[in-house]
């Protein structure tokens, strides 16, 4: 049996993910062009990011600043958009604002203020998504749907920030389809107020079909692309 190279493994994973996305788009009457695939590379080395870029991936997601900052620096020569998708501590905002193109996890006023200050200092415009809590687990971050509009007002008014839309994670053990339907309804209401806030970041390896069916524009895929995660070592 021929041993697969890492390139072969990632290429096979990407082909399978693309087939799943295509199937989901056909089932929901959507175009593949409406979907941005974000390769979530947390715990994987920068060499995997380079393979992904070689295979045509342009969007990479990370959820830990310590790991993301180092990877972004190591891959600074690649034409990539960096997405910060994890819960963000305010003391990491300055670092994240130096490399991220889009922060998916804005969920409180203090973070808006800190990111705004950091983006201005870095001379950059930082895209921001408001993370919506679809369950009652505070450890997963996010604001309740009723609080989204007030926080969006703050993002829109903040210097150096650009309000891009919403992000959510399906509840553990819950019905992803029902949760993403609620998110879609909220996203539609947000677009009615801010037409440019068109991003809906939803769907991971296990629930991308439900996300596509409910209007997701950005999918955050890790395991299905790169295999089972390894523990992160400091």
Automatic annotation (TrEMBL):
<protein>
    <recommendedName>
        <fullName>Pyridoxal phosphate homeostasis protein</fullName>
    </recommendedName>
</protein>
<comment type="function">
    <text>Pyridoxal 5'-phosphate (PLP)-binding protein, which is involved in PLP homeostasis.</text>
</comment>
<dbReference type="InterPro" id="IPR001608">
    <property type="entry name" value="Ala_racemase_N"/>
</dbReference>
<feature type="domain" description="Alanine racemase N-terminal">
    <location>
        <begin position="34"/>
        <end position="228"/>
    </location>
</feature>
<dbReference type="InterPro" id="IPR029066">
    <property type="entry name" value="PLP-binding_barrel"/>
</dbReference>
<dbReference type="InterPro" id="IPR011078">
    <property type="entry name" value="PyrdxlP_homeostasis"/>
</dbReference>
<comment type="similarity">
    <text>Belongs to the pyridoxal phosphate-binding protein YggS/PROSC family.</text>
</comment>
<feature type="modified residue" description="N6-(pyridoxal phosphate)lysine">
    <location>
        <position position="42"/>
    </location>
</feature>
<keyword id="KW-0663">Pyridoxal phosphate</keyword>
<dbReference type="GO" id="GO:0030170">
    <property type="term" value="F:pyridoxal phosphate binding"/>
</dbReference>
<dbReference type="Pfam" id="PF01168">
    <property type="entry name" value="Ala_racemase_N"/>
</dbReference>
